[in-house]
Amino acid sequence: MIPRVAGDAAPRPSRRRHGLGVRLLLAQATVLLAGVFTTAVIAAIVGPPLFREHLHRAGVPANSMEEVHAEEAYIYATVFSVGGALAVSALTALAVGWYISRRLQRSVTEVASAAAEVAQGRYDIRVSPPELGDDFEALASAFNQMASRLQTVEATRRRLFSDLAHEIRTPVSVLEAYFEALEDGVRTLDSTTAAMLRDQTGRLVRFSADLAALAQAEDSSHSMEPALVNIEHVVDKVATASAERYATKGVHLQIYSSDRRPLVMGDFQRLEQVMANLLDNALRHTHADGSVAVTTAVDSDHVEVSVVDTGEGITAEHVPHIFERFYRADAARDRDHGGAGIGLAIAKALVEAHGGTIAARSGGRGQGCTFAVRLPKASSREDSAAAITSASGRGAI
């Protein structure tokens, strides 16, 4: 026998707890037993005196044989009628409670099992509708939506790492090949080789800068400095900065202003980045002698800026994915044709950080493309405050 050291706690056997179905059934049985006990007590205490009083009022002598037989008949009738009714009610209630508890237990078990599968990385798991009321339907629907979102996130993560590897592999492979050629004496470090090396290293630098910009854009809600912004001032500034590149390629850039002040609450630099990405994207996919038009419109609640180009266009099946990271609709929009493929993802993140939306429309290949940015219009109170500030010389919109 192994001696037990004083003070050591004896191992306690783990208590097996009942599931939800058993607990519901036990609760139902407890309620039924309480009902049966209460009915029996009331029938035994209250019933006979009341019956006896009515017998006396009807002229039956007290303690007579008639009274005794009548009370016996009342007791038998009460026992059989009330007892039978209670027995049938109890059996029915227990049967219904058992059925409902089984269904509840099955649904809860299914959700728990599915949650365990999701925790193991199986994001394709789904739970069936329990058909137990709106609350359980909402629970099943919320779980399925969560699993679907996790599956999408996982697929996006895998595609992101694949795209990152592809983006880095190409310039690194070129650099490695050139360095090996230099070491073997196949190439010399002339101006052509230096230009190629500089181009590939520049590509890596641009890619890392784009990734940093995307991360900053997706976290921009914590770093923005909101102020009252005239969106046309943003468009004019970006258009002026892009004018030389548009002229070099031979693409006409046209700006159309609104007859109302398009004021929004936002970060001027972030909005400038959105417009710069949209104008760069339009220029990249518009051929020489084409045109890009930027139009600003104001309605009662929103300010909308549309960038319309006459370029390559996008087929319908690719439009819903155009704002995804590294997404390419076709060969004409590959990585050698422009940036790293995250400019539109950056624009979407920044617009949504301002509480707005961005959408793309196209009639198909060769039909051009339209990008529409909708931002909440500044309230009248904010507009009035800005006007007072501007008039007093402390600032301008």
Arithmetic mean pLDDT: 77
* Helix and strand pattern: HHHHHEHEEHEEHEEH
Shape: elongated
* Assembly of the depicted chains: single chain
Largest sheet: 5 strands, mixed
- What is the end-to-end distance? 89 Å
Features:
397 residues, single chain, elongated, 11% strand, 5-stranded mixed sheet
Can you walk through the features of this model?
The protein has 397 residues and is of the alpha+beta class. The chain contains 9 helices and 7 strands. It has helices at residues 20-45, 47-57, 65-119, 134-184, 191-218, 231-249, 268-284, 343-353, 380-391; strands spanning 227-230, 252-256, 263-266, 291-298, 302-309, 357-361, 369-376. The strands form 2 sheets. The protein has a 5-stranded mixed beta sheet with strand order 2-4-5-7-6. The chain has a two-stranded antiparallel ribbon with strand order 1-3. A hairpin with a 7-residue loop joins strand 6 and strand 7 (369-376). Helix 1 runs antiparallel to helix 3 (65-119). The chain is elongated, with a radius of gyration of 39 Å.
Structure described in brief:
This protein has 397 residues and is an alpha+beta fold.
Topology:
Elements: H1 20-45, H2 47-57, H3 65-119, H4 134-184, H5 191-218, E1 227-230, H6 231-249, E2 252-256, E3 263-266, H7 268-284, E4 291-298, E5 302-309, H8 343-353, E6 357-361, E7 369-376, H9 380-391
Parallel strand pairs: 2-4
Antiparallel strand pairs: 1-3, 4-5, 5-7, 6-7
Helix pairs in contact: 1-3, 2-3, 4-5, 5-8, 6-7, 7-8
